[in-house]
Amino acid sequence: MSFRSLFQDVREAMDHVHLSGCLKEKTLENLDKYVEKDPRVPLLLSRMKEVAKVFLATNSDYSYTDAIMSYLLELGGEDKVRPGRGAPGASAVPCAPRPEPVPRQRPWRSYFDLIVVDTRKPLFFAEGTVLRQVNTDTGNLRIGTYTGPLQLCAVYSGGESARAAG
Fold first, then answer.
1. CA–CA distance, 6 with 9 (Å, rounded to integer)
2. Per the confidence metrics, is the pTM higher than 0.85?
3. CA-to-CA distance for 74 and 108, rounded, in angstroms?
4. What share of the chain is helix, strand, coil (3-state, %, to 5)?
5. Higher-confidence residue: 20 or 35?
6. Phi, psi (deg, nearest 5) at residue 103
7. SS3 102
8. Are 61 and 118 in contact (CB under 8 A)?
9. What's phi and psi for 124, nearest 5 deg?
10. Could you tell me the pLDDT band of residue 86, with boundaries at 50, 70 and 90?
11. 3-state SS, residue 116
12. Which of 6, 23, 62, 87 has the fewest CB atoms below 10 angstroms from its CB?
């Protein structure tokens, strides 16, 4: 079997798993098993947003994105960074800084200036697709093409990178 044949088989299997929806379904059934949480991510995103615009562009639909991002960013209470994961204070260096508590009481969408789902990358970076707004209460797309200014905390579907950057 050639590497090309092996690549084609793996590619077809991955396409099937993605298109059938079973990959996302199985992931959502057992987030603890398939999604690794890092309690430093909320702090990282907060710091990034203090100095620059932060956006999320994903090929996934809103419902899946909402579930994953809620799992990663919206757990109640404070988590401490776990030692041994490259965290501050994890090294054996004397006087290393202690792990910072990471507040996790805000909606995941607040970590981003722009959120675009269903981007259909790489199409998003080329000619793009129709831009629509997502109703975050239902996950449904609003009727019609969105033509107004991009709004903070809104979620969009499709579109193109040139508009997102502008």
1. 5
2. no
3. 6
4. 40, 10, 50
5. 35
6. -65, 140
7. strand
8. yes
9. -55, -35
10. very low
11. strand
12. 6
Tokens of 6: 């092996």
| Mean of per-residue pLDDT scores for the chain | 84
Cα-Cα end-to-end distance for the chain: 48
Partners of 57 in the β-ladder: 116
Work out the number of other CB atoms within 10 angstroms of the CB of residue 122.
9
pLDDT, tens digit (0-9, with 9 covering 90-100), for 126-150: 999 999 999 999 999 999 999 999 9
pLDDT-derived band at 102, boundaries 50, 70, 90 = low
Yes or no: say if 115 and 56 are a contact pair by the CB < 8 Å rule. Answer: yes
All residues at 6 or more sequence positions from 91 whose CB lies less than 8 Å from its CB, including other chains = none
Strands 114-117 and 55-57: parallel
Domains of the chain: 1-34 (no CATH), 37-165 (3.40.50.1000)
pLDDT at 76: 47
113 burial (CB, 10 Å; 0-12 / 13-18 / 19+) is middle
Q: Omega before 122 cis (within 30°)?
A: yes
159: its two tokens? 């579109």
At residue 4, what is the residue type?
R
125 secondary structure, DSSP code: G
